[in-house]
Every structure is written in C-alpha cells, then in structure tokens.
Amino acid sequence: MAFTNYKDLKVWKKSIELTDTIYKLVQKLPSNENYALSEQMRRAVVSIPSNIAEGQGRQTDNEFRNFLSIARGSCYEIETQLFICKRQCYFSELEIKPAFELLEEIEKMLTSMILKLSKN
Length: 120
What we know:
- The chain has about 120 residues and is mostly helical.
- It has one domain: de novo design (two linked rop proteins).
- Helices cover about 75% and strands about 0% of the residues.
- Helix 1 (about 10-25) packs antiparallel against helix 4 (about 95-120), helix 2 (about 35-55) packs antiparallel against helix 3 and helix 3 (about 60-85) runs antiparallel to helix 4.
- The longest helix has 27 residues, at about 60-85.
- It is elongated, with a radius of gyration of 15 Å.
- The termini are close together.
C-alpha cells in the first residue's frame, strides 16, 4: 500500500473517536467494574488505533494486514463488552448506540483494507 501517514487514515481517525466514546462510557460503570470490565474495555479500544498505526509503520503489506486484523479483533472485543454492559443494565441502548455505530463503520473499513491488501 502506498505510504500514507497513519494520522491521515480515516479509519485511524474514527478509531480515535471511538476511543473517546468508550472512555466516556466506562466512566459511568459501577465502581465494582473498575478493575475488570472498564480496564479491559480501555485496553481493547486503545489497541485499535495503536495497531493501525503500528501496522502502517511496518515494511510490508502483509505485516500491515496482520495489524489491521488485530485491530479488527479488538473491535469485536469492544462490541462484545458493550453487549455485556447492556445485558448488565450498565448502559441503555441510547447510550451505547453511538459506540456501536462507530464500531460498525470501523469494522467495515478495516475489512475493506484487509481485503485490498490481500489482493496485492
């Protein structure tokens, strides 16, 4: 893939936006989740833009594709954790809808990039 600064990638920008969204949500979790679910969610969401950036800095398309796959896996992890939060009645559908929408968009972008890199 032609060199692009990772900060110029729309998917990276969206993942930073998702990070902000998740950080705001986890502040609302009950204190008994401080060292479990909230910590896991913060680690997973930070992993998304971090892996996009690290992958962009690698030497080959195969390496970049691998890091994009890891980022996509972290999206699925966050999605699962949001479902758990909803089932535990920590968040309403209205509260988590923006996060789910961003996740869906990011997942589609990552999948598209992965497929494009697979063809090279």
